[in-house]
Amino acid sequence: MEGQSDRTGSHPPGVIRRPAIVRTAVIFYGLLLAVVAAWSIASGDSIFYASSDAQPRGWAWIFDAAIGAAAAAATIFFSERITSRTRWGEAMARALVEVMGKRTWVECMVLALASGVAEEAFFRGALQPRVGLVAASLIFAAAHFVPRRELLPWAGFALAAGLLMGGLFVVTGNLLAPIVAHVGINAVNLRRLGQTYG
Q: What distance in Å separates the CA atoms of residue 186 and residue 108, rounded to the nearest whole number?
């Protein structure tokens, strides 16, 4: 059982123990945020806005968060349909759970917050204004590429998600909606996949 393997220290080869994967992710994404902050300071550009024109408008907190939540809900709906109704979707889900394991809600939220904030700050806030929506989304997809047959569709899913997050960034002019969407998708899907396929 997973809880017993965490206590005894024995676990299947290639599977990172529960505390280690969460801690490693938090450290990695913390370093990524530090890189983004240094980039922002060095360039003099804000990573929080899609353009200098968007900055004076600021954040429409409720509206932007609502758009992000709606995008997350739609993405979660479609990803659930893909994993439950296609053979390749189920294989991808099982492979992801094999790597990530079954997570508690707290662990899912920590991983979702760390990845959602750091990845949006980097791919959308820092990268997209310089390389454009499509290029930033392709780089985002490449970062999610895993050379394993069952996980190849994950890069395609990441490309679609990158275009969605990038579109939210352009439409709202700031990072709030993409962050809310990204965190929501990751938190719910991590938990759902672990519960369903763990």
A: 8
In the numeric block, which tokens belong to residue 2?
């997973």
Give this prediction's pTM: 0.88
Q: Determine the distance from the C-alpha atom of residue 11 to the mean position of all C-alpha atoms in its chain, rounded to a whole number.
A: 26
Nearest Cα residue to 134 out of 179, 164, 157? 164
pLDDT in tens, 118-151: 999 999 999 999 999 999 999 999 999 999 999 9
Strand boundaries in 17-148, DSSP class E: none
Torsion, Cα 122 79 3 149, to 10 degrees, reads -80
Measured CA to CA, the distance from residue 74 to residue 80 in angstroms comes to 10
Place of tokens 């993409």: 178
Query: Which positions ≥6 away from 136 have C-beta within 8 Å?
Result: 123, 124, 127, 128, 162, 166
Q: Which residues of 53-91 are buried (b: 16+ CB within 10 A; e: fewer)?
A: ebeeeebeeeebbebbeebbeebbeebbebbeeeeebbb
